[in-house]
Amino acid sequence: MQTVDASWQYQNGDHIACIPGSYEINVDDDGAIGVNGGVCSFLQATASGVQGGAIKGLLQELQKHGCEACGSISTTSQNDVSKGELMVNFVSGNINGCNGLCG
């Protein structure tokens, strides 16, 4: 995520970056469900958001934990996600045309 603005203050729920896609999930022998959305990074439960520079570091730490697509990491040194976390997860529905860095 080299292009995340290090000084920008991201807030809870802001899509930081997304990879859009449409997926088909087989539910049984009779068919499948179509799902649209994408894998996005975003913040949850932070007191006042997180600057882009810190988000870059958190994403690197998430990769070191072996997360290749989805995962989460605390934004605080107490490792308490109830006080803030960076999530990378599938988001269904409209991701507002975000492909790569969101803005």
UniProtKB/TrEMBL annotation:
InterPro entries given in the database record: Killer_tox_Kp4 (IPR015131), Killer_tox_Kp4/SMK (IPR011329)
Killer toxin Kp4 domain residues: 2-91
GO terms under cellular component: extracellular region
Protein name, entry field: Killer toxin Kp4 domain-containing protein
SUPFAM superfamilies: Yeast killer toxins (SSF55221)
Source organism of this protein record: Friedmanniomyces endolithicus
